[in-house]
Amino acid sequence: MAYFSKLDSNNKVIDSIKVEDDVVTQDGSLNEEKGQAFLRKIFNEPDAVWKRSVKGMCLGAHKHGGEIFRKNYGGIGSTYDAARDAFIPPKTLNPDGTESTTVVFNEDTCGWDYPVSRPTEPANSVWEYGDIGGWQRIDEVSEGKTWQYNSTDGWVEVDI
């Protein structure tokens, strides 16, 4: 299957569709232009912008060992960056649904990194990141507690 992502005027992905390989294959390989022409014709949108995407792409790697292409899958809400020829996912959301302001863009993966890494202790814990308070452990009832990072002590549990 070949996947294509439809872009709006700001290069934001507004639709994603799969197309049979035989429709977009030319001389034994996938042809993006052939897929674009096919989609413009069937949707009767001659000016629509479609970019080929690869399902399973995430942060510069393929989850299942498939083709490495455009850093990330072009899912709805992602943005296509022509200069990088890559899809960039939306910024990470805080637990309250607001966009994180502390994540940092990673040029290598075209994804978003947290300013400090997720705690590794206790083992098998589930963590959630929020701009305010840093990482919070969510696999147990820990009302009023959050984990914060400081350069002296590392990860410490604090009352909020």
Could you describe the 3D structure shown?
With 160 residues, this protein is mostly beta strands. The protein has 2 domains: 2-88, no CATH class; 97-160, no CATH class. The protein is 9% helix and 36% strand. The protein has helices at 21-24, 32-42; strands spanning 2-7, 13-19, 25-26, 29-30, 49-53, 57-58, 61-62, 79-81, 86-88, 104-106, 111-113, 127-130, 134-137, 145-150, 154-159. The chain has a 3-stranded antiparallel β-sheet with strand order 2-1-5. A hairpin with a 3-residue loop joins strand 14 and strand 15 (154-159). It is elongated.
* Major sheet details: 3 strands, antiparallel
Helix percentage: under 10%
Structural category is mainly beta
**Tally of individual domains:** 2
Distance between the termini: 49 Å
Low-confidence stretches: none
Radius of gyration: 20 Å
| Beta-strand content bin | 35-45%
Oligomer: single chain
Shape: elongated
Mean pLDDT: 87
Count of DSSP-assigned helices: 2
Order of SSEs: EEHEEHEEEEEEEEEEE
β-strand number:
15
Strand adjacency order, main sheet: 2-1-5
